[in-house]
Amino acid sequence: MKQIAAISGFALVMLSIVPSVRAGGDEFDAPNRFLRDGVIRYGNEHFDPKTNLVWRVDKGRLDVCQHSLEYAAALFDASRQLERANAIVAAVLDHQDVDLKSQTFGNFLWWHGETRVRDRNAVAFMSPWLSYLAIEHGERLSRTNRRRLREALGRCIHGVRAHRSGPDYTNIWLLKAASMVMLGRALGKPELESDGAERIDRWIQYTADNGISEYNSPCYNAVDVYALEWIYHYASSETLRKKVAQCLDYLYADVFQNWHWQAAIGAGTHSRAYDRDRDTGRSLVSCLVFKQCGQPLRERMRSFIYVFAVNDYRVPDRIRAAARKDGMCPFRTDSEGTPSR
Q1: Residue 266 belongs to a domain
Q2: Domain CATH number, residue 106
Q3: 85 falls within a domain
Q4: For 235, how many CA atoms within 13 A lie in the half-sphere containing its CB?
Q5: In this structure, is residue 248 part of a structural domain?
């Protein structure tokens, strides 16, 4: 595989590492439980029983994408309020475009109350989560939801492929690759995983020549990482998993290199991308550093962060150790997932 040479000098140095392996089950149990319980508390507080969706108080409207679906996934994973979780899934599926004549067939309405698909990125965020529910919780879904979900996943294939964006649109390209891998796993269609693998190869080639063209930012770095972690966890091809692990090592090394451990925020160019995407200690990247290194979170728990609790990629010790220069990152998490020095 051609190396992603443009990402960072630190990442290049750190890639002379032993191949990555799956994390042991115990290492991430506490932080995962901490994230899951926080998401459930947030969802319980902001769930709207009239629409069976989570109300995003920061935007003042109902989000039918991750906020509602991640809350449902957390409930299924915790074996809590399964009737409510099923109601959320049904409500979310109601927001898919099922009109065969529509240019956005298979995609999703981003917000409750919209009459047409305005943001075609929605299907790339939704497909991995819907696939996750089918793979991990098929038996807990109602009979109607199982049928509807399988039909929806079939439409998602079209929605992902119809969304014309290239490898320069980093987070969406990687999410589309993850979507194809997850859809292939959920539907038993290995050719979809091959589609996802081809997208990864194309992204690697593009990035080797150009670097990451879409912001190394407090938001997008984390989305890039969790898209690759979906693939790492659910791909059946060991070759693809190893390739994705190498990409993850690059991205994590880059995050750690640009992290200010004492201030607990991203530094330099990684601290900002555009208006309102600035790191004030409440970024999505903070969740990565919390999980891998135990750095305390400043963010009030909300359902958008549950994606960091469902896939356990263990960053190799050599990368994590190098990030902790001069004892700058002596954090640990206790049995309840609470960070401490």
Answers
A1: yes
A2: 1.50.10
A3: yes
A4: 28
A5: yes
Number of domains in the chain: 1
Q: How far apart are CA 15 and CA 18, in angstroms?
A: 8
Overall size of the chain counted in residues: 341
| Domain residue limits at 322 | 9-340
- Could you identify the residue written with the tokens 């679906």? 69
How many other C-beta atoms lie within 10 A of the C-beta of residue 338?
A: 14
Give me the tens of pLDDT residue by residue for the chain, a chain 341 residues long: 444 444 443 333 333 322 333 344 588 999 999 999 989 998 999 899 999 999 876 665 667 777 899 999 999 999 999 999 999 999 999 999 999 999 999 999 988 888 899 899 999 999 999 999 999 999 999 999 999 999 999 999 999 999 999 999 999 999 999 999 999 999 999 999 999 999 999 999 999 998 887 766 667 888 999 999 999 999 999 999 999 999 999 999 888 888 888 777 777 766 666 655 667 777 788 888 888 888 887 766 665 689 999 999 999 988 887 666 544 554 444 445 454 44
Residue 2 lies in a domain: no
